[in-house]
Amino acid sequence: MAAQKINEAHEHIAKAEKCLKTSMTKWKPDYDGAASEMAKAAVAFKNVKQFEQAKDAYLKEAEYHTENKAAYEQAGMMLKDMKKMPEAIQLIEKASIMYVENGTSGTAGMALDRAGKLVEPIDLEKAVDLYQKAASVFENEDRLRQAAELLGKASRLLVRLRRLDEAAVSLQKEKNMYKEIENYPTCFKKTIAQVLVHLHRGDFVAADKCVRESYSLPGFSGSEDCVSMETLLAAYDEQDEDDLVRVCNSPLLKYMDNDYAKLAISLKVPGGGGGKKKKSTVAPQGGSGAPPPAEEDDDYEGGLC
């Protein structure tokens, strides 16, 4: 069966070469015909796991029929099966650029997302780059839900890489997108993630500012998310280790995306605890629905909200 498929592939290659020949009766090469035959050869090689030959056939298809941008992506997938990941990602990125140039930006974004998933297990830095590029493609198309989801993937990986300053910026951009499409419950979850990231950065003011600014979101004031963050900030500010541990181990935080849950369980109060030392600067619990008194922070430039 394998030998039959390989012979079939070589027959298609021979036909492709014939399509490219000119003669007294055929003045121009038939590139479309050659591309079609190469696509068939690639599939035949792929079916018998001859990935190197399949990749070469897909590249030839792309060369002969430049309108078929997918051939570069398919060649990239063959390289992925050959465990040649850097080369695979390079081809998929090339395909995505051609998709954009051809006016099919959505296809480009999906290709970059697929590439990010492929490379994530072996290269987090590259996966972040690909997810951010995909998000940018969708954002330019005003497809904010897809853009925000891809930014979410980048944000989580930035946290995993401990690039917390960049994670804070990425989270804010996510939150703005969800706010624009009026997905307020997700905005609440992004506020929790922001607080955890800022506290791990050692920036209490930025964390507090994120919570106070979230009072403008419909339904946030008095919600479980709001009350938990008020309690968390108060515990952190007062160096109350017991309250902080209680909030960070609550189901609300424990069952967040794994990267944020890890931030929660590893969070410590400054100075290692020691009990309450001063009154909280955030609103008391109780869900009254009224935001805490605003503090003057116009001169503050450290926050990333």
β-strand number? 0
- Taken in chain order, the helices and strands follow as HHHHHHHHHHHHHHH
Structural class: mainly alpha
Strand content: under 5%
Total number of helices = 15
pLDDT averaged over residues: 85
User: What is the end-to-end distance?
Assistant: 61 Å
Overall shape: it is elongated
The percent of residues in helical segments reads 55-70%
pLDDT < 50 stretches = 277-291, 293-303
Main β-sheet description = none
Radius of gyration: 27 Å
Summarize the structure.
By secondary structure, this protein is mainly alpha-helical. The protein has 15 helices and no strands.
In words, what does this structure look like?
68% of the residues lie in helices and 0% in strands. The protein has helices at residues 2-20, 31-47, 51-64, 70-81, 85-101, 105-119, 124-140, 144-160, 164-180, 184-200, 204-214, 224-237, 241-248, 251-254, 258-265. Helix 10 packs antiparallel against helix 11 (204-214). The protein is mainly α. It is built from 15 helices and no strands. Residues 277-291 and 293-303 have low confidence and may be disordered.
Topology, pairings included?
Elements (H helix, E strand, L loop, with lengths): L1 H19 L10 H17 L3 H14 L5 H12 L3 H17 L3 H15 L4 H17 L3 H17 L3 H17 L3 H17 L3 H11 L9 H14 L3 H8 L2 H4 L3 H8 L40
Give descriptors for this structure.
single chain, 305 residues, mainly alpha
